[in-house]
Write a structure and sequence with these properties.
about 25% strand, 9 helices, single chain, 6-stranded mixed β-sheet, alpha/beta, about 250 residues
């Protein structure tokens, strides 16, 4: 289990996270939804050790995780909203670097790399650097790097950004297979449609707090209270919660 407990973060005088609590159950896929700017990436960066929290804690298997918790962090695969690459490497060269960083056995990682390149339909040669890849291809490189060391946990910030529909379906099937093997996954997204059929639980981050964490049946029941006549009640319910602004118009397009 992964557990986020009372995490707070402010930049200057602006509170971004105001005591975030969230539990990600073992061998399940947890969605963290929220509008752009809700603080999802800030939260991911905190629990990944990239930035410090003002207060609160992150736990894996009831162990409080800090920047020095290497033996626990090595159990996790990460994808960040702004991926960290060595862009003057090819996908194959970069995955080799990541494999060595995780100290994978030399007789194992070449096969893993070849299988990952094939699965994600990435170039298997060294002719093009990552910097020349499309946005979707870069997302696939991040996902491949997150999986190469066979992690028990995945923390994924907008992992499908720029990825084509067919590849998304293929990757979601992989994620579901991983949970059957005991892997726990946290995915952030601002697009409900992308994660609707993938996740077991759906949390919504708004105004610096998680305002609910529900299963799909619970979410449907809640959505039907106010939006039962909508074509997609859950989507309409989430949109109503995520959008606080008044509907505005572009006058010159009328």
């Amino acid at each position: 289990m992964m557990k986020i407990e009372n995490i707070t973060k402010s930049y200057k005088k602006q509170e971004v996270l105001k005591g975030v609590d969230l539990s990600c159950k073992t061998d399940q896929i947890q969605a963290l939804l929220g509008a752009n700017g809700a603080g999802k990436s800030t939260l991911i960066n905190i629990i990944s050790g990239l930035i410090k929290t003002d207060d609160g804690a992150f736990f894996i298997d009831d162990k409080r995780i800090t920047i020095d918790s290497y033996k626990y962090r090595i159990k996790v695969g990460y994808v960040f909203e702004k991926p960290i690459y060595i862009e003057k490497l090819s996908a194959k060269e970069y995955l080799t670097f990541v494999a060595k960083m995780y100290k994978l056995p030399k007789n194992e990682y070449p096969q893993r790399i070849e299988e990952l390149l094939t699965f994600f339909e990435l170039p298997s040669d060294n002719k093009k650097y990552i910097e020349s890849y499309s946005k979707g291809m870069k997302s696939k490189v991040s996902l491949a790097a997150a999986l190469i060391h066979q992690p028990s946990y995945l923390i994924l910030d907008e992992p499908f950004d720029g990825v084509d529909f067919v590849s998304i379906q293929k990757i979601t099937r992989l994620f579901k297979d991983l949970t059957k093997k005991g892997v726990t996954i946290l995915i952030t997204s601002h697009q409900y449609d992308v994660v609707a059929e993938l996740c077991d639980n759906f949390a919504l981050l708004k105004a610096g707090k998680v305002i609910f964490n529900l299963t799909m049946p619970e979410l449907v029941e809640k959505a039907n209270i106010k939006h039962k006549n909508s074509e997609n009640p859950v989507k309409s319910y989430l949109e109503s919660l995520m959008n606080d602004s008044q509907e505005s118009q572009l006058s010159w397009l009328k």
